[in-house]
Amino acid sequence: MSFEGFIRYMRSDECSIFKIQHRTIYQDMNQPLCDYFISSSHNTYLIADQLMGPSHLWGYTSALLKGCRCLEIDCWDGANNEPIVYHGHTLTSKIPFRSVIHVIDKYAFMSSAYPLVLSLENHCSPKQQEVMAHYLKSILGDKLLSSPIGGEVDMTRLPSPEALKFKVLIKNKKAGTIEESMLRMYDDNPGETEELSDSEFLSEDEDTDDTLPLHRSKSPTKRRADRRSSAPPQKKPKVKRGKIALALSDLVVYTKSQKFVSFEHSLMNQQCYENNSIGEAQARKLVRHSAKDFISHTTRFITRIYPKGTRMSSSNYNPQEFWNVGCQMVALNFQTPGTQMELQDGKFLDNGGCGYVLKPDFLRDRNTTFTPQNVGRYSKPMSLSIRLISGHQLPPSSLSKTNKADPKVQIEIFGVPEDQARKKSSVVKSNALSPKWNETFSFNIQVPELAMIRFCVEDEVSLVNNEFLGQFTLPVMSLNTGYRNIPLLSKEGIKLESASLFAHIWYY
Q1: Is 390 helix (H, G, I), strand (E, B) or coil?
Q2: Average pLDDT in the 366-379 region?
Q3: Residue 473 DSSP code
Q4: Rounded mean pLDDT of 335-345?
Q5: Whole-angstrom Cα distance, residue 122 to residue 200?
Q6: Which of 367, 286, 275 is nearest to 321 (CA)?
Q7: How many angstroms separate the CA atoms of 277 and 296, rounded?
Q8: pTM of the entire structure?
Q9: pLDDT digits 0-9 by tens, 136-183
Q10: Cα dist. 455→28, 184, 471, 474 in Å?
């Protein structure tokens, strides 16, 4: 082999830091849906901020091409009986629901054959809900799952991703039982509605103020004054009731949206096909105070986490803290680059990028005693050694007057609290073309099954200011040992041609 051939080989996928076996689907895909982490998007229709930004079909296209398996669609009444999609009570632009479903039909299974979940945040009138049901059925056709596999109505566990291949599942409120839905399948009268109480009908996101209105009717001070001056109510106010069109309700099979009350309530009352959505702030409190119960809950039920409504710029939270307790659908704003989306992209590189990653055994066992704060007997310590050798054709600095970078590398571990660590290399002055470090970093990782590792290259512009040059994030369990090439990605997750790091990886 020539020297040039050897260099090409060292830069090939064969010598990548990411295990080549993990680039294909290698995990057991026959476990219930709740046993997997599922790549999930929040406000998928937005391509910028959630106050004035544009809604665009590209949001759905790009998420699907990334292997995302749970998309969100905010549905509102539009003109001429045509439902529209946008972020309600804001100045974001509107797109037709029909167009969204056409795009989903085209790209649904282009990057992954495994089931796609459409999470509907439904604000439409019954009349336009019927229009939504019509479009879902007529456009998606056989892709749409509208009845249980094999006609089973008394289910005790969810089907597997393998059993649901090439199927689109609707996540929405549901009236009545699956059996009643099946009896209506051949009914010629689709124009029926059923009333649900306000707590049942409102989407979980709306319950916890995910959609913040653009204008408040009263200031908080005025509202507090009103409460103080008003007399106590003589009787309970009437419970508001919302109507759901049975035509739409009947399309919900394995992903029925159910308002989260408490872990105890779910354990006593919730069916395996009922899922909860919990806002990040509430979920964070539950992680802090009830981690054991949270994990017990996620071994049984699909749980979706979504960003708080005050994130007007569509910023993201750290998904790792919710993966640590087994939450399946940790929904992020895919349009917003940053460390959080790098973790998301890195996690779902695994298992062939199919959007489903099997959870570790201790997050699937209903009798588990694991918690992120106290890993106990579930610890499988790994000693990881990384010798950072060199860089190759790193991007030039846009902030430098000479257009030369002073690169340094930051290596970070994300995982359970005990495993989180960050180490930095020295700075190589004015050399982005072929910087050399020859520095060794050691990490002790207690729960490698949950840990992620991020390599980030920065230009030290000043002592207090660094410019991002490139990064690569992957699961610790996907690390290849030996001399390895680390490809670098841009902030948007696009591969930077020729830019890479070279390192020696070893663990035991």
Answers
A1: strand
A2: 95
A3: E
A4: 97
A5: 12
A6: 286
A7: 16
A8: 0.90
A9: 999 999 999 999 998 888 889 999 999 999 999 999 999 988 888 888
A10: 29, 54, 5, 9
One-letter-per-residue 3-state SS of 341-405: HHHHHHHCCCHHHCCEEECCHHHCCCCCCCECCECHHHCCCEEEEEEEEEEECCCCCCCCCCCCC
Edge to edge, the sheet with strand 70-76 lists 95-96, 84-85, 70-76, 116-122, 168-171
Structure-block tokens of residue 262? 């408490």
Do β-strands 116-122 and 70-76 pair in parallel, antiparallel, or remain unpaired? parallel
Q: How many Cβ atoms are within 10 Å of 19's Cβ, its own excluded?
A: 16
d(Cα 51, Cα 431) in Å, to the nearest integer?
A: 42
Residue pair 39/344 in contact by the 8 Å Cβ criterion: yes
The residues assigned a catalytic role are: 42, 87
Distance of CA 289 to the CA centre of its chain: 23
Nearest CA to 496 among 389, 395, 399, 406? 395
The type of residue at 319 is P
3-class SS of residue 479: strand
Q: What pLDDT sits at residue 400?
A: 67
Structure tokens at 234: 């003589």
Q: Where are the beta strands (DSSP E) in 198-320?
A: 241-245, 256-257, 274-279, 303-306
CA-to-CA dists, residue 306 to 94, 129, 276, angstroms: 21, 24, 11
List own/partner pairs for 420-425 with CB under 8 A and 24 or more apart. 425/388
CB 304 within 8 A of CB 277: yes
**Which residue, among 342, 358, 356, 315, has the nearest Cα to 456 in the 3D structure?**
342
Beta strands in 280-358 (DSSP E): 303-306, 329-330, 356-358
